[in-house]
Design a protein that fits this description.
314 residues; six-stranded parallel β-sheet; six-stranded antiparallel barrel; FAD; EC 2.7.7.2; nucleotidyltransferase
Length: 314
């Protein structure tokens, strides 16, 4: 899969293509439906498929300080898109000047002049251009002039537990923030992932017999609510069952919120400096301050057993 950053990276001899545009944070099941249809339509037409996305998130430029928590960094989104069969991903730097482009100018500069769109596939609520003035109807209207077709794909609707809401990044972020990682996984189609580099912490886990990887998460990462979770720690290509702690470590009066993962039944791991991934499978319990270290150790032992059971065979 080709990866481009900015319009200038697109090959000059690029021909017709099928395009879909969006932030696509998380590449959840609704996104997968749209992107999958773009890939399918591209194959029908015998042309490549392209996903256009933005960095930073448009809201950070339009309303500074409003950057939403991210469900997946751009490199992870590209990996997920490649798995769906996408031929190229174009990341457009979203600047103040870019935000001023009218819907018509966006269509001409991006879809027509550079990507030579043969078809554009979007969800029903797609908006684009200055002040999000462009919509699917305008996109289709301009398609008649610039020789591209527009296809709208309906999004999945989550079941009764989600109040009948369409699958969305906003809903997924809310579920993650609430600690409902199983609900988030229902929308994503996989466990929610947090990534970062393993750094040295207070090393209390090592002293207690449960050494943890202290993950320095990427900026704006969507981190689950404080608590203990079952999941997996992936490092250097190896996926290991893990007991994961999110919070400030109230037992030792901590103040800094951290994500720490204990690789269950693994001895002698040296992960410092490695970029790792932590996948959240299930919520186990909330953060607590215990009456003694002995009580803490008993709880940790129970947590590890629970996490071992939850991840077994998964």
């Amino acid at each position: 899969m080709q990866r481009w950053r900015g319009l200038e990276d697109i090959p000059q001899d690029w021909g017709r293509s099928v395009v879909t545009i969006g932030s696509y944070d998380g590449v959840h099941r609704g996104h997968q439906l749209i992107i999958g249809r773009a890939v399918e339509r591209a194959r029908e037409l015998g042309v490549p498929s392209v996903v256009v996305t933005f960095d930073p998130h448009p809201s950070e430029v339009v309303r500074p300080g409003s950057h939403p928590p991210l469900l997946a960094p751009h490199h992870r989104r590209a990996e997920l898109m490649a798995e769906l069969g996408v031929d190229a991903v174009l990341v457009l730097p979203f600047t103040a000047a870019f935000s001023q482009l009218s819907p018509a100018d966006f269509i001409v500069k991006v879809l027509v002049d550079k990507l030579h769109a043969r078809a554009v596939i979007e969800g029903p609520n797609f908006r684009f251009g200055h002040r999000a003035a462009g919509n699917v109807a305008f996109l289709r209207e301009m398609g008649a002039t610039y020789d591209y077709e527009v296809e709208v794909v309906d999004l999945y609707v989550r079941g009764e537990a989600g109040g009948g809401e369409p699958f969305s990044s906003t809903l997924t972020r809310r579920l993650v923030a609430e600690g409902d990682v199983e609900g988030a996984a229902e929308i994503l189609g996989r466990p929610h992932r947090v990534e970062g580099v393993v750094v040295r912490g207070a090393q209390r886990g090592r002293e207690l017999g449960y050494p943890t990887a202290n993950v320095e998460t990427l900026p704006h990462t969507a981190i689950p609510a404080d608590g203990v979770y079952a999941g997996w720690l992936t490092a250097a290509g190896e996926r290991m069952p893990a007991a994961i702690s999110v919070g400030t470590n109230p037992q030792f009066d901590g103040t800094e919120r951290t994500v720490e993962a204990y690789a269950i039944d693994r001895v002698g791991l040296d992960l410092y400096g490695l970029h790792v991934a932590v996948d959240f499978l299930a919520y186990v319990r909330g953060q607590e301050k215990f009456a003694s270290i002995e009580a803490l150790l008993e709880a940790i032992g129970a947590d590890v057993k629970r996490c071992r059971d939850l991840t077994a065979g998964r």
